[in-house]
Design goal:
This protein is α+β, with helices and mostly antiparallel strands. It has a domain of 45 residues. The protein contains 1 helix and 2 strands; from the N terminus they run E-E-H. The protein has a two-stranded antiparallel sheet. The longest helix has 25 residues. It is elongated, with a radius of gyration of 17 Å.
Length: 65
């Protein structure tokens, strides 16, 4: 399982941002560059917004009075 994910070094930590369909949307190891940090923030924001939208669609509407 490690090799398909690119986890070939047992001495380095790996980080993955995974969406609701278990797709890897962002991956990193070692120190992130500024552009990589910005990409993580953008990807995380997109996934959080999708989750919020899905949550609001699932919530029942309050009863009308």
């Amino acid at each position: 399982m490690r090799e398909p994910l690119g986890m070939t070094n047992s001495r380095i930590g790996y980080i993955y941002l995974v969406d609701e369909n278990l797709k890897i949307r962002w991956a990193a190891c070692a120190d992130a560059k500024k552009e990589e940090e910005e990409a993580l923030i953008r990807c995380a924001s997109v996934l959080l917004n999708r989750r919020r939208q899905a949550f609001h669609k699932q919530r029942p509407s309050p009863p009308e009075q």
